[in-house]
Amino acid sequence: MYKIIWVLLLSPLMGLAQQENTGSYKKRVLESTEVDILSSYYEQTGNNASVTGGIGTEKLTDVAPSIVVSIPLNDDDALTVDAGISTYTSASSSNLNPFDLTKSGSGVSGASGTSGVGGGDDDGFGDDNNNGGYSGVIGSPWLASSGASRQDTWGGITVAYAHSSDDRNQIWNANASFATEYDYTSFGFGGGITKLFNEKNTEVSVKGSVFLDTWLPRYPTELDSYLEAGNNLNSGFFNGVDILDSNGNVTDKNGPNTWRPIDGFSLISDKKRNSFALLVSFSQILGKNTQMSVFADVVNQQGWLSNPMQRVYFADVPNYFIGNPASISYYTSSQNTDAFMLADDIERLPDNRMKFPVGFRLNHYFNEVLTVRTYYRYYFDDWGLQSHTASVELPIKITQNFTLYPSYRYYTQNQIDYFAPFDTNLSTEQYYTSDFDLSAYDAHQVGFGISYTDIFTKFRTWHFGLKSIDLKYNNYQRSTGLKANYFGLGFKFVMD
Q: What UniProt keywords are attached to this protein's entry (predicted)?
């Protein structure tokens, strides 16, 4: 997100900065106030939810409107304010507390109120699976619960300032940002300098950023309740709730052969996550039609780098469940609608991570109709992850006002050293995760966009003229089965 903000800020400035001064006249870095109104819709499906230990629904929808205002302060300085929100509904996150449903002979109801799900065999909880006689607390990794974590709103704002020298051969910038959501807050700041040489055919940039983030941790219900009840399985949430073994037998909650989280489970002590990044880039115009650039980042993250919402299950520890014993035998199937496996622990990862991405861009202008933009990035870190990204975009100008943007992106990565799928990590390991974002996979993204540009801003509303409209669509598919669609719409206005 933050790199996008830098691009939005610097692209108009860099283009204007390459214009020479003529006599006593100095070209302004930004002629007038510009306003970008952006919105997007994102949806995904998948079957490897990390909140439920690497299996379960990943269905998610997200709506994200934002506004970016760029203001010229004088001939040399510009201020940009980027504010936005992102409202999502996540079936996976809802299962932080999957136990908010109970099964009764007449239907399904919430543990603290009516869920609104009707009774009968078509509700997904009836005799379809020969379990119509079960009554008690249920949950499933394959169904969204009605817990508070099922939806949230992220909100953030970034303020950036850029100053250009009189000869437009040097630009320095600074920014500050703040963002917050259900279980996380973030404060960031950074700055950089850009130098142009060789009659502005060569450009070198150095940028740095710092993010000081804090978890407001939320834990899986069974682990949180275990601590609240003082490790007493006959108190609090567990009072009157049967704990079943893998054969569906009710266990003795006072005996040794019942569920207990690994090492009694402990809350996270370091709630900070700090990130420090340094980016160096070099750009060169190779000819009147070709430009290339290379870049390298160094990123260091410190603090709690795991997600406390994400469950982990161990292969060398017996499995225990809450819900319908008849559903345990096909627990990993989406047919399971009323049994839930109790977590052994939460995801735990090292408290330090070094990241090293390096990349290359090559853009070539063939003619007034076709341009080719290519990109490649190689990434590696000290958690054992390596990845390759390659993409191509083909802007095709079909009229004076309309441009098409077909694109393709390929991504591949191996798994980190600490990843294992559902119920295959070992309790003897120091670090473990079943987050499939950290697994090995390939991904393909096909995109299409169309842009309308009116350089004369003929359409006007109030004191603003419409400069451009952009519409984008991306289809994304992973080899793990995750699929996603993205729709974006943007309007740029220029003040008179």
A: Signal
pLDDT exceeds 50 at position 335:
yes
What's the CA gap between 308 and 316, in Å, rounded?
Answer: 22
Strand 386-393 relative to strand 407-413, pairing:
antiparallel
Largest CA distance in the chain: 90
Q: Is the dihedral of CA 462, 463, 468, 474 positive or negative?
A: negative
Residue 129 in 3-state DSSP?
helix
Per DSSP (E only), the strands in 91-201 are 101-104, 107-110, 136-138, 151-164, 170-181, 184-197
pLDDT of residue 25: 58
d(CA 56, CA 238): 23
- The percent of the chain in helix, strand and coil, each rounded to the nearest 5, is 10, 50, 40
* Entry pTM: 0.87
Q: Label residue 270 exposed, middle or buried (CB < 10 Å: 0-12, 13-18, 19+).
A: exposed
**Residues written for the chain:** 496
pLDDT value, residue 108: 37
Quick: pLDDT tens for 431-482: 999 999 999 999 999 999 999 998 777 778 778 899 999 999 999 999 999 9
**Predicted local distance difference test score (pLDDT) of residue 231:** 92
Instruction: Work out the angle at residue 67's Cα, subtended by the Cα atoms of residues 65 and 72, and round it to the nearest 5 degrees.
Output: 170
Question: How many other C-beta atoms lie within 10 A of the C-beta of residue 460?
Answer: 12
Inter-residue contact 306 to 269 (CB < 8 Å): no
- From residue 302, alpha-carbon distances to 135, 305, 379, 433 in Å are 46, 7, 19, 18
Cα 352 → chain centroid: 20
Domains of the chain, start order? 1-91+145-216+280-300+351-417+440-496 (2.40.160.40)
- DSSP, collapsed to helix, strand or coil, labels residue 227 as helix
Q: 113-138 burial, b if ≥16 CB within 10 A, otherwise e? A: eebeeeeeeeeebbeebebbebeebb
- 352-364 mean pLDDT: 98
Question: Are 193 and 167 a contacting pair, CB within 8 Å?
Answer: no
Report whether pLDDT(125) > 70. no
Q: What is the pLDDT of residue 113?
A: 32
Six-digit token string for 484? 């996603």
Write out the two tokens for 136.
């008690």
Give the tokens for residue 97.
């507390």
Selected residue with higher pLDDT from 299 and 464: 299
Residue-wise pLDDT tens digits, 379-422? 999 999 999 999 999 999 999 999 999 999 999 999 999 999 99
